Structures are given as structure tokens and as C-alpha cells.
UniProtKB/TrEMBL annotation, chains A, B, C, D:
Protein name as catalogued: Single-stranded DNA-binding protein
Self-association state and partner proteins as the record states: Homotetramer.
Its job: Plays an important role in DNA replication, recombination and repair. Binds to ssDNA and to an array of partner proteins to recruit them to their sites of action during DNA metabolism.
NCBIfam families according to UniProt: ssb (TIGR00621)
GO terms, molecular function: single-stranded DNA binding
GO CC entries: nucleoid
Biased composition (Polar residues): 112-136
GO terms of biological process kind: DNA recombination; DNA repair; DNA replication
Extent of motif Important for interaction with partner proteins: 145-150
A Pfam family it matches: SSB
Length: 150, 150, 150, 150
DNA sequence: TTTT
DNA sequence: TTTT
């Protein structure tokens, strides 16, 4: 019935993606994403608040994540809230919430791209190569009718 | 690159959809949507502000709009900003902005569905019949992997 | 940093709001919201999927919810994901996710359902009485109550 | 009523902000933001599509933009669509759409691009000085300046 | 566990 | 006019 369930996040990965290749060409990637907000408390002191999100990506999205994302990567995410519910050993109802990612975009590429002198593999500073960015936006495939004569 | 261009609207149609059936099974629908916000001005008086949006829908979305929407319908819209630019007769650069709708959802259905005694065809109070709602949400087709064994 | 944590929902309340009036004029309301999506599975059968969300509203928003919302109400919600973490009796880390509502808007249903005596077919005739809608769109001005002892 | 009018953008500035300081401590900044999407056309060729947006920021947001943003800056923007309508010299109705920015966040790019002297391989080496980011996330507290003579 |  |  007329439902909308949409999540929009911008944050950094707390760890490299965890990727599982399943039977039948299925791939699932799990990411930990931190979104941090800063504000002043009532005493005017700056306070930081970090929320950690469990992201789940499937198939094409998972493969792109595996190839291009790593600990520290900054991404824009669009997805939906999705929960698993089950009973634990004591028979208690349990619930776990994750974000099912529908599309994501790598952020933080240097505007000038060229020489950043970065030779260290552990830094996040890689620009999002163009063929990475393209599929990352892959959910807008229906644009082909944009070139109608109107 | 890494671009995001997203518009989310909730409002009411100012007129019935204008639908054109084109060659090659193409269909385009144009809608006028009003979003109204209310706030208090500096004197504490309530002020209403209405913004009118030009929406454009193609193909499947256009057909659903044609079939189920009418003047007054309340909808949730997700889309993107899209502008046309051209030169007018005087050689001035002109620009027109519209919202390319990617998905929409009909609102205002009664949760309990049951008879509301409404027999007037021109009122907006129609519930969104279930087969209308389904295609209106049609952009989430990739959910079929939801039923994996995890 | 540079974080964004945004949730947008449209759904119906599964129960009347639970409201607690606390010391110091603080008010908190908890809502259960269902967002339902429908899609066709691989066999072409229509499947419905309902996700339940725990919403938390404070102060002005909570008061409006208490006054105008009830089981079945359809609302548009904007908020953010917010989790509590703790250790349970067995020393296991536990986490509970809720949606902290920053603003909400009542959608095209009569707040109380009952006959509104509307006999004018052409009116946009809508519900959510005007003084309800106005504060319902008010933005939450501060996050300072985030540090309440809950 | 019950309106929602929300725009979310991620893109790069096409030019430095244009800032005007007005009487009464009012400040307005105008930005040109490009959002680029890439997709494959029906022949499998990669196509890029850039949309240009006119952003308008007031007061606190405008001051932050003036201080920290420049041509090429990548930002996340949340705002609403706002149009001006008028009659031109020929008496034709004209309309111009812009995005009224309610909040923005600087994304992972060095504000000034050039040498940041970062020699530490493990840092995300990033810019957007902390006091810039903080206020940049501040919400615009009032719409009352909407009725300025512009 | 990220980031600034 | 940005970015990749």
C-alpha cells in the first residue's frame, strides 16, 4: 500500500568490504559505514556523534564494492531499511536492522585528480576511476528514452 | 563526477494528467503538482506558500498516471531535475526546468479501505487500488534476491 | 566527517502513539510505522513485504503526534537512524535501531477517519486540519535532547 | 496541503560562489552546481549527462560557502525547489527555478586542491577544516527571509 | 571500526 | 562552467 522506505547516507567505511561469492553467481558484500554529525551542546562545546550502519549489497553492486571500496572510503548511499527477525536460544524475539543498498557513489575524488604523490596502498585517497563510478550509478539505466525528440 | 540529482515531492495534482501516445509505443504524461508549505511569518501570522512543479513521466509510469491519477490526486514522487535549454525568437537563452519522475506512489488511501460512502467521482478520496499501487512502485523490481537463504 | 544520515518513510501507524510526559516539560512519543512494498516474484505472483519501523519523536513533534495521529494514520516521515547499544544479562552486545523523527506530515487521510461532511466534489478538501499540518511540518530545532538519560 | 519539496544533490561547483552582502547583515550566495550522471546508451557507449543547478544560500550558509567553497568543490546539498515568476518585456510569463539550500556538506576534496603537505600515508588527509564542516551542517533555522525583495 |  |  503506498509505502516508501528510503535511506540516504554519506559516510566512511570502518573496514574493507566483506564479500561472499555464493553459488549461482550470487555475490553479497557487507560494509560498515560511519556517519558522523557534529553539533554544539548546551554549553557551546563541540560534540561528535557517530552512528554505525550495516550495509548489504548484492551482485553488481557487491562486485563494484569489492573492487573499488576499502576501509576509509567515503561514499554516498541510497537504500532501504531491512530487518531480520528470529528467536534466539532463550526463545526471545530478536531483530537486526541493516541497510539494503540500492545504489552508491564513491565520493572524495580529488578535483584535480592528477599527481597526488600518493604511493601508499593504505591511504584512501584513490580517486574513483571513471569506470568505477559509472557502474556505481548503475541504477539509472532507464535514461535511454531521454533522447527522444522533445 | 559522482553525481546525485534527486527530488522528492509530496503534493496534489492541479489538473488531470496530459498524456500523449507517441509512435513506437512511447507514452509521455505531464503533470502539474503543487507542494504547499505553511509557516508563521515574523508577526506570527500563518502564511501559505505553494510551489508548482512540472512533472514528466514516460512509458509504464505514464500509463499508470493516465489510468489512476486525476486533478486533486495526492502523490509521493521521486525523480530528478531535468532542464531544457534553447534560444527564443529574440536569440535569448531560455531554460525550462521539469521533474523527470522515476517512481511515484499514490497517497491518501484509507488504511482500512472499507466503504467511505464516497460516491462522487470528482473527489480525490479514492483509495489507490491495490493493482494501481503495485506498478506505481515498479522501480523496485530488483527485490527478487531478497528471498535468498540468509 | 561530512556525514549524512537521512531516512524518508511513508507508511501507516500500526497502533496509537505511545506518549510519555517526562519531568521538565519533556515529551517523547513512540510510533510503530509499517512501510509496505509490493512486487512480482520470479513467477509473476504479487508479493507484499512489510517493514516495521520504531519511530521516536520528542517535544513539539511528540505533542502533535499525540494530538493528531492514531492507529492507521498515514504519514510522511523524515528522520535519521539512531541506535542504542548495551549489554544484555548474558553479557552479549545488543543493539536496537530506531528512527529519530525530525519532521513528519500527515497525508491524505482524515485524522479521525469519521465522516467529514465533505460534499464538495471539486475541493482538495483535505484533512489534516490546517493547524495540525502547520506544526507537523515544523523542523525540530535542536538535537540537544539527544543526550537525555534514555 | 501536507506538502514535501525536497532536493538532494551531490556535485561540483562550476565557479566560485557569488556572494552579495546586503543591508541588515543579510548575505546571499549563488552557486552553480553540476551533477553528472553516466550511463550506457542502447549501443553500449558510455554517455555523460550534466545538469546545471542554480543554488541560493542565505546568511549563515552563505557565509560558510563564501569562506570555504570554490570552483570545483564537491558538495552534498539538501534544499527545496523555489521558482520566481514574472512578466518579461513582451508581457510573456516567465519562470526561473533555483534550489534554495537548507544545508550543505563539503565532501572529501581539498577545498583548495593544491599542496596539502600531507605526508602521512594513513590519514584520509582531509580538508574541510573542522569548524567549516560543523556549521555547514547547521540547519537553516528560518524561512522568514524568503520574503526579501529578490 | 571510519572520518575531521 | 564542474567533475571523471
Amino acid at each position: 500500500m503506498a509505502g516508501v522506505n528510503k535511506v540516504i547516507l554519506v559516510g566512511n567505511l570502518g573496514a574493507d568490504p566483506e564479500v561472499k561469492h555464493l553459488e549461482g553467481d550470487k555475490v553479497v558484500a557487507n560494509l560498515r559505514l560511519a556517519t558522523t554529525e557534529a553539533y554544539k551542546d548546551r554549553n557551546g562545546n563541540r560534540v561528535e556523534n557517530t552512528e554505525w550502519h550495516d550495509l548489504e549489497l548484492w551482485d553488481a553492486q557487491a562486485r563494484i564494492a569489492e573492487q573499488y571500496l576499502k576501509k576509509g572510503s567515503q561514499i554516498f548511499v541510497e537504500g532501504k531499511i531491512k530487518s531480520d527477525t528470529w528467536q534466539d536460544d532463550q526463545g526471545n524475539n530478536r531483530k537486526r536492522v541493516k541497510i539494503r543498498v540500492l545504489s552508491f557513489t564513491m565520493l572524495g575524488s580529488r578535483p584535480d585528480g592528477q599527481n597526488n604523490g600518493d604511493t601508499n596502498p593504505n591511504t584512501m585517497s584513490r580517486p574513483t576511476t571513471s569506470n568505477a563510478t559509472m557502474p556505481a550509478n548503475a541504477n539509472d539505466m532507464d535514461d535511454s528514452d531521454d533522447d527522444l525528440p522533445f
